[in-house]
Amino acid sequence: MNPAKRCGRKAILASLLVLVALWPLAAWAHVESGQAGGFLSGLSHPVSGLDHVVAMIAVGLWGAQLGMPALWVLPVAFPMLMAFGGMLGLIGIPLPGVEIGIALSAVVLGALVLGRVRLPLAVAVIVVACFAVFHGHAHGTELQAGQNAMLYSLGFVIATGLLHGVGITSGLIQRWEPGAQILRGAGALVMAAGLYFLWGAAT
């Protein structure tokens, strides 16, 4: 099978995984409003802010550039540490410089994609995990009153995984030289967006 067909099949598989992940949403109409609201609010929260979106997609892009095992380790490490940060936010433990940390995550991750930087797996995980805590804390502190904290956390972890999936699927184009350059361009855009967010957070 040629590379184009393999890429197409992987893209279809990724789309099916997204549909399977979202399919249970239909059932939430039959549970208590606080529970449904908590899950749906958590699911929508990561995509409600461009700063979260670009950083989470960048994790997938960088993982695709690094290849196995980083391809799956980074998208697993990020939600896990993000859930930890979310717990800190939910129980009211402060974390200084959250908005700056989120903005820096886009700057650094974008620069890593732009430069096609290959770090040892352990270092790459540490970089991703540190930024994940800031993203999670921001989600945790924004839980609305009356909503289920556990389901809210589950929602934003699932949404984060889906955004990583978008980045990984998009990163498949790096197998061809023009695609690799496009991917580096995407990293530049992420970094530029991060600098904009950083300016906003610092002023």
TrEMBL record:
Keyword Flavoprotein annotated: no
Classification via InterPro entries: HupE_UreJ
Position of the signal peptide: 1-29
Assigned keywords, A-Z: Membrane, Signal, Transmembrane, Transmembrane helix
Membrane spanning stretches: 45-64, 71-91, 97-114, 121-138, 150-173, 185-202
Keyword Cytoplasm in annotation: no
Stated name of the protein: Ni/Fe hydrogenase
Species per Swiss-Prot/TrEMBL record: Lamprobacter modestohalophilus
Taxonomic classification: Bacteria, Pseudomonadati, Pseudomonadota, Gammaproteobacteria, Chromatiales
